[in-house]
Amino acid sequence: MSELVKSIKAISESFFEEIRTCRRHLHQHPELSFEEYHTADFIENKLREMGIENIQRIAKTGVTFLLEGSRPGKNIALRADIDALPILEKNEIDYKSKYDGIMHACGHDVHTSCLIGVAKILSQLKSEFKGSVKFIFQPGEEKTPGGASLLIKEGILENPIPKTILGQHVMPFIEVGKVGFRPGKYMASSDEIYLTIEGKGGHAAMPEKLVDPVIITSHILIALQQIVSRKSSPKTPSVLSFGNISGKGATNVIPDFVDVAGTFRTFDEKWRAEALVLITQMAEGIAASMGAKCKVRIEKGYPYLFNDPAYTDRNRSAAQEYLGAENVVDLDLWMASEDFSFYSQNVKGCFYRLGTRNEAKSIVSGVHTPHFNIDEDAMKIGMGLMSWLTIQELNH
């Protein structure tokens, strides 16, 4: 183990209680996407306590600053998302969310606190790296159009232009003490599909006088699955799922309208565009053939996330040096989506996973659930490893 690794681990250990306190404060005070005003103020105050002055707001609730090394060199960017989810927390913990129906159920409080920790570590180790680090505390990851897209429009990837960008995310399916990497395609694109099927409602006992949008909706939903099973290449993973159907009828009332909401996800941008056209054509066509109308609304979401292979391999090797090869695992394709993908479509990116699971402590719940929590020891690795990876890349 190198002396620098030992030094970073020692500094991470010394800052751990402070960073854990940061995380617990943020966990108690979660804010929804694009409403993270208290969170942004909290981040700014913590940075100013370190003596950092060149802090800027971006996209209203985003926070960014530049940290210079001891000598000229390239720039790399580090990103943490800061928003919470509209979920009622069911954990019985001292730092439970104070806001009913809002919870840090995806670990963004962890990401934010770890990046504050990275700022503290690298501020003490400026002599160890050349170049500069752009810190990005990003709002709105959980909500379309994604805070990353807004920050990019406002110039976050300019002045200076980063050579690479690094992001980490908690993973409750990986044991604490371990991290995971995957080069190339990693997470899927995500688009929201909204259908409104308009028929002619009335008394359920007289179906011959009606145009039943409930039955027509069932035909549309079954048929749309053929787009995935028969129109897409089996070599390209795709998912078309509908999670909300609302007819607002009754046992003896057929409604005039049925509303449906779902998602389409894949790993190929050309196929993604084609599939959205097919979804529209098929839904409209089936409805028309049965005497109804179908209004299709598609909200374009995030592109698929691509980890630059060379950059990811360098980070994986560096992580093995920091944690040991036995604590660095390979990740599988993940059909969830992440707006870090906007960065990785513009800059060479690496998005890796931080293990947070601890069965002995009953910390096993997945993200986006009311019982999600982490083994906070993971934050020592979260801030230490990201600091190490940053220094290694800047000096590469």
Q: How does this structure look, described?
A:
With 396 residues, the chain is of the alpha/beta class. The chain has two domains: 3-187 and 304-394, Zn peptidases (Aminopeptidase); 190-302, 2-Layer Sandwich (Alpha-Beta Plaits). 35% of the residues lie in helices and 27% in strands. It is built from nine helices and 16 strands. It has helices at 3-28, 37-49, 108-124, 147-153, 213-231, 269-289, 309-323, 340-344, 378-394; strands at 56-58, 62-68, 71-81, 130-138, 164-175, 179-181, 184-187, 190-198, 202-203, 238-246, 253-254, 257-266, 293-302, 305-307, 328-330, 348-357. Strands 1-2-4-3-5-16-6-15 form an eight-stranded mixed sheet, with helices on both faces. Helix 3 (108-124) links the parallel strand 3 and strand 4. Helix 3 packs across helix 9 and helix 5 runs antiparallel to helix 6. It starts with a helix and ends with a helix.
